[in-house]
Amino acid sequence: MNQNTKLTRIREHPREATGQSPDELITTVSDILEEMLANLRISHCSVDFNQELLEAPLVEARNRGYALSGVHSLRHALSMGVYLTSTMYGHVTDNAQRTYIIFYIMFMFYVDDTYFGKSDRENGLLFFISRFNQNQPQEEPSLTAFATFLREDTATVFEPIGGGIIIASSLNFINGMILESSVSVAQISPFAQGFPYFVRNKSGFAEACIILAFPRDMPVIHYAQAFPEMLYFVLDLTLRPSDIMSFYKEELVGESENLVSLLAAVTDSKIEFFQNFKICGSGSPCIPVTRHEKYEVLRHLSRAVSLGHQRTLQILAGAPLAREVYLKLAKGYVCMYISMRERYKLDELNL
């Protein structure tokens, strides 16, 4: 079977292309996720959230003039901002930073939920960055509010380096969404080994997620050396949707436009894997893909996440405060996904 035929089969018959029956899929994915959670030493997650946590942010949103009803309403996104802040950033106690995190996640969730998959003609994000750079109104009110928040609040709450990383990460996310909306597995050249990671890294805001976790007055240099490993950990547990935690759900419905499917589709994907967790020139981890089967790609991704986690702890051994923050961040992110059991069908995997 030639590669073009395989690409078509992955798109039209995803379960047949991976060579798995439903029972095999459940067993394989369950084993992979259990192994990863054991390596991360995460066995118990407690999510403390109630509607009362939404009251103060809702008042603040009204005071800021954010749209909370109508076509461009941020109301649902605000609820998600409060929920995700509680689950992922529950360790953050600074009020200004916590408020920033809530609204930042709100805007990012709104952008993702509203504009992902839209064509260029429909996509209000197409000129977002050029308008942002020129301080011009955006396509619609909530995008204008997002641009203002990003420009003004970031500079107020965070020191220059951290704030700069947040803004750059956010604008990369916008570009990545536009790019990803125009890409499908069927269009990928079988020789484009680096392209899946290029699109994947652009279509998330992992750098910002890391900065948000650390005290805003902590110099970035205190944890900068561990940034590549933390970045990889966050990339593979938090982007839309998480390639690892949501793989089972996506495979059930035949979703193929994700990192696992893209890596399974390219040829000559076997990349040298060094025991010291080699990082490729593009900043992407060098992952070995021994077979063009999605579950093999998933297994390698999950093991590399575990390895990156251990490397981060080793690097931060001399910075106990930063190490403690990272451990809370890591557990918070994993527990956030585990708490969304129904969405990711984790009960079917006995997790």
UniProtKB/TrEMBL annotation:
What is the name attached to this protein's record? Terpenoid synthase
- Give the domain of life: Eukaryota
> Which SUPFAM superfamilies does this one have?
Terpenoid synthases
Q: Which Gene3D superfamilies match?
A: Farnesyl Diphosphate Synthase (1.10.600.10)
According to the UniProt record, where is the region Disordered?
Answer: 1-21
